[in-house]
Amino acid sequence: MPHSPDGIRHAQRGRTRLEDRHVEARSSATWGWGNDSPTEAPDVTAEEKEKVVLIPGHERRSGRKAIRGPRTIQPGHDAQQVRAKRKDSGVPTSLPYTTAGSEFLYGTFSVLAALKAQRRKLYKLYRLLPPGYGVDTNRAKAMQPKHSPEETRLHNQINSFAERAGVLTESVSGPRWQGVFSKASDGRPHNGWILEASPVPKLPVTMLSPLKSPSDPINASVGWASEEEKAVNSTFQVEGGKATIPSVRPVHRYPFMLLLDCITDTGNFGAIVRSAWFLGVDAIVILEHGTAPITTNSVKASAGAFEYMPVLHVKNERDFIKLSRRNGWKFFAADAPETLDVKMRRSMQQGAREPLEVDGALLQHPCVLILGNEEVGIREFLRTIVDGVAGIPNARPDVGEIDSLNVRWRERRMLE
């Protein structure tokens, strides 16, 4: 049955009156169309706000935008604070450098060791606060990570040593800063701590000086260094072209060092330094070319040992070994004992010398152990100028495919 025009007009007028009644309470408040959080008029009660409903199609027919409800806000923050953080353009895309040679150390142990040792120049400490930090609500407290007593103690130590050293500390928070920290640590765990500092001190040396007795100090001839390198290496005592290498060895033992020949893996590099420090090695000798650089990754792998271990930098390893051997230092190649090959034997015979035994060597001579590359071992020319071979024999020589240890384990076993 068709509807009459009068009936249609009557229904439209009834719907209009219904809409007017539902939006009456809404019009008494100063709602801003399209705003996230309206400003309420003082005469609007909570009951009246609950009566406000939206009639489907009303905003479309009236030409107005639909009212959006308030967004979910984290506990302890209001809408204005959240918007300010979203619009904050003060967060950098990466951490700024104080000097061109600065490094960013990350991780609890790496940062704490650098602050304790104070062998570097320390510029700035960054602390990433967890979500909800400082907000006194149950939900915010539940969001914060649970630290063990040991972690809390380490964090307190970092703050204490930074304050003693006069290091500027900046506490930051928010997802943008989380991205900045991840970028500075190359995506590796940083534990919420990043320290800007100068590189690890590396003393350029040309040879090791002779020792008359085991208790004598360790001296080395210093090579050329730029003014920036001299400033970084000021932790070493240098006088008259000679540097004194600190040592805590027993008085009856001669000095013992490691020379790393083309160790390329930064993780192995750090692990070697960690074991060497723990087992009493006096210094690490690294080469100008071929050896992995001291990166933040190797520093972290060393568990902070790089901050204490003296590092000597050599540009010409052949001359360094020859000159140091003239001064009484003995060099051993870390390799399997059966690798004392024809070239090495011929070289020793030409020099009218026999391979030196490892057992008891440190009671008679200052010694250097050479660790070779992870894949090819020690280079051939170094084999011809060493005094002997120090190694661990293979218990299963019949299986030729497994003929060596990982360099970090080989070094650890031989140091023991």
Automatic annotation (TrEMBL):
Residues 16-25 have a biased composition (Basic and acidic residues). Residues 256-407 form the tRNA/rRNA methyltransferase SpoU type domain. Pfam families: SpoU_methylase. GO terms for molecular function: RNA binding; rRNA (guanine) methyltransferase activity. Keywords: Methyltransferase, rRNA processing, S-adenosyl-L-methionine, Transferase. It comes from the Eukaryota. The keyword Thylakoid does not apply. Belongs to the class IV-like SAM-binding methyltransferase superfamily. RNA methyltransferase TrmH family. This is tRNA/rRNA methyltransferase SpoU type domain-containing protein. It comes from Cladophialophora chaetospira. The lineage of its organism: Eukaryota, Fungi, Dikarya, Ascomycota, Pezizomycotina.
